[in-house]
Amino acid sequence: MRLSVSLISDAQGNPIYFVAQTEDITERKRVEEEFQRLNQALEIKVTERTKALLEAQEELVRKEKLSMLGQVAGSVGHELRNPLGVMSNAVYFLQMVLSDADETVLEYLEIIKNEIAAADRIVGDLLDSVRTKPPQRDIVYIAPLLEQTLRKCTIPPSVTIKLDLPESLPPLFVDAIQIQQVFRNLISNGIEAMPEGGSLEIWAQVGKKAETVTINVRDHGIGMSQEQLGRLFQPLFTTKARGIGLGLVVVRNLTQANEGCVHVKSEWGVGSTFAVTLPVYHVMAG
Ligand SMILES: Nc1ncnc2c1ncn2[C@@H]1O[C@H](COP(=O)(O)OP(=O)(O)OP(=O)(O)O)[C@@H](O)[C@H]1O
Ligand SMILES: [Mg+2]
Q1: Which residues span the domain enclosing 187?
Q2: pLDDT digits over 105-136, tens only?
């Protein structure tokens, strides 16, 4: 209720009487409150939308920068492939002709060879993460594929590789070069997870309907926390001083491009297992 009182005076200004008026303002109050509530809700919405818009704009700028950086990295990577290849051939030649050289020379040649191999993996990851080429799929036998991959990896003397493959594994239908890159990354991660050394186990099993083979890489290293597990496949996620954080992005992209999938199990302080499932070659598929 609202009460308004007016004083009525005569011509000389002497009060004659009061006029009191009451008014039911319940409805007006309700409308006013409703209006205020709507106004507040609108303000909150406008603030939220502005924030989202700003975030979207920042994300767009970030993506554009990343894509530009990706293109630069891609072309630099591409240009580095040739000199790396030449250096690798030169080291191979030197190791052949200097086989009688003293131990230090041979040791340094081995260091150069290993560093070239590490640079080659990084360049490969850089190129594969910028653009995954369509796979050139063919019949690929698992044992020679893994043996070849292991030859390209630098295995420290403190790490033992245990390769355990059943005799009768069906061949895969995949791009051999891409799948080698997948295992190069998983093997390097496994080795890097065991700075004190240990055993890295690689084994394979055929899927239920014999349409797939799962190849597992298990280390007994540092393992991962839940937080790490959640961010594992994010580009540029790394916990290593010398890491880039592209290895697992490439593992997932290349595996998926070859119609496969990757699963991870890990326990902090115990170790990790990466399981890569890939399609088997069928006469029909070829
Ligand atoms: N086998 C593993 N054991 C423990 N942590 C791992 C393992 N594999 C991956 N990680 C974690 O996931 C992160 C991302 O791995 P990823 O291979 O993508 O990048 P990176 O090894 O750090 O660098 P690079 O680009 O040189 O491979 C690692 O930094 C590490 O924290
Ligand atoms: Mg890695």
Answers
A1: 138-285
A2: 999 999 999 999 999 999 988 888 877 789 99
